């Protein structure tokens, strides 16, 4: 059997509607380009002195460095896919700490003989998570990368993740998780079989007041089994 | 010996070359060679397995003892969303006995952070059945009555 093909998609509209294709982009969903020497990048930005970047698109390499909150934590307000292929950054308006369900999708073409696990690592060695965004801070020692599986249900408003010390959350739990390597990860289906279907999740970065100044580029990765 | 080296900020991984890592399954009158890790060919194998031998691109050869009622083959990978990098973690060969499953986990990677080397085998026993449509039955004459 051939290894399955994974297509990574994002909803460019405010329509909270599922993806209906089988790996190709459509009028709402664009593909995250992952091949070539200059692949797309997911950018969390806004909440800075520019009061955010323009939407629905912004020039390549635009950033509005987020100002840390005085207390507590701040969800970084804007999410973009920076796409050299598109020639600009494309806003993902539904991403964030809201009740939006159809935000990011993975379409699995072929068969996976396990669940599809979403993990975050420092780099594509997939074996360390020491950067600030994944290790957290003194007062908030959680990974800042909050995510929730929305394949079966809408998340509650103001959802947050928890950092697990060896485990996962499933779509059925309705609970978010703070991604940290394989210790704290997300199952996108909750079953050990995925075939020719789309699975969904939402994601945001929760920035603590005591975070250091950082610009991290962790790797968002999917782990699975096939025959 | 063929290896892929994947450079990270904190560590470098050595990974097998996927196109040169494959199984050969022996039957009573023939043998079938699988494809590489990206196109293993396990689904198309017939029942009646006598023996499975795994060949890694590093030259390591691993023979699975021919004593099980059925066999299952799985590959564990991680794929990064934004740069399409892939790490092949393990191949699992699972062998079914009457009341349990023996799992051979073959490492396909090594790095400077962990002791595991390419070709290391970790054998575990599992009493929980694994449901899969891809179990391949062994040739009856080669099944040992072991529990």
If you had to describe this structure to a student in words, what would you say it looks like?
- The complex is a heterodimer of chains A (227) and B (147).
- With 227 residues, chain A is mostly beta strands.
- Chain A has one domain (5-223).
- Chain A is built from 1 helix and 16 strands.
- Chain B is mainly β.
- A 5-stranded antiparallel beta sheet of chain B has the order 11-9-8-7-12, with no helix packed on it. In chain B, strands 4-3-5-6 form a 4-stranded antiparallel beta sheet, with no helix packed on it. A 3-stranded antiparallel beta sheet of chain B has the order 1-2-10, with no helix packed on it.
- Chain B starts with a strand and ends in a 10-residue tail after the last strand.
- At the A-B interface, β16 of A face β7 and β8 of B.
- β16 of chain A pairs antiparallel with β7 of chain B.
Structural key phrases:
heterodimer, A: 227 residues, 8-stranded mixed β-sheet, 4-stranded antiparallel β-sheet, B: 147 residues, 5-stranded antiparallel β-sheet, 12 strands, globular
């Amino acid at each position: 059997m051939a290894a399955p093909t994974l297509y990574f998609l994002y909803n460019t509209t405010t329509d909270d509607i599922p993806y209906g294709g089988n790996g190709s982009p459509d009028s709402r969903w664009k593909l995250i380009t992952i091949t070539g020497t200059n692949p797309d990048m997911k950018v969390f930005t806004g909440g800075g002195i520019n009061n955010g970047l323009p939407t629905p698109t912004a020039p390549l390499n635009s950033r509005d460095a987020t100002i840390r909150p005085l207390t507590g934590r701040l969800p970084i307000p804007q999410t973009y896919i920076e796409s050299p292929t598109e020639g600009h950054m494309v806003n993902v308006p539904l991403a964030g700490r809201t009740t939006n369900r159809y935000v990011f999708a993975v379409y699995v073409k072929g068969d996976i003989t396990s669940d599809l696990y979403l993990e975050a690592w420092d780099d594509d060695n997939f074996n360390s998570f020491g950067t600030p965004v994944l290790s957290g801070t003194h007062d908030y020692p959680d990974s800042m990368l909050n995510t929730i599986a929305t394949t079966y249900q809408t998340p509650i408003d103001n959802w947050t993740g928890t950092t697990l010390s060896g485990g996962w959350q499933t779509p059925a739990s309705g609970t978010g998780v703070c991604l940290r390597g394989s210790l704290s990860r997300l199952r996108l289906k909750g079953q050990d079989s995925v075939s020719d279907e789309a699975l969904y999740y939402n994601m945001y970065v929760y920035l603590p007041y005591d975070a250091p100044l950082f610009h991290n580029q962790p790797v968002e990765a999917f782990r699975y089994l096939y025959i | 010996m063929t290896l892929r080296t994947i450079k990270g900020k904190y560590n470098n991984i050595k990974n097998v070359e996927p196109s040169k890592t494959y199984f050969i399954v022996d039957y009573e009158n023939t043998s079938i060679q699988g494809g590489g890790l990206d196109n293993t060919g396990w689904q198309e194998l017939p029942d009646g397995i006598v023996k499975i031998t795994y060949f890694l691109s590093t030259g390591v050869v691993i023979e699975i003892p021919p004593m099980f009622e059925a066999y299952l083959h799985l590959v564990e990978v991680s794929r990064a969303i934004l740069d399409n990098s892939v790490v092949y973690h393990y191949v699992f060969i699972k062998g079914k006995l009457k009341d349990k499953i023996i799992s051979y986990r073959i490492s396909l990677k090594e790095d400077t952070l962990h002791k595991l080397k390419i070709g290391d085998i970790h054998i575990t026993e599992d009493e929980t059945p694994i449901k899969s449509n891809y179990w391949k039955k062994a040739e009856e004459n080669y099944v040992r009555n072991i529990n």
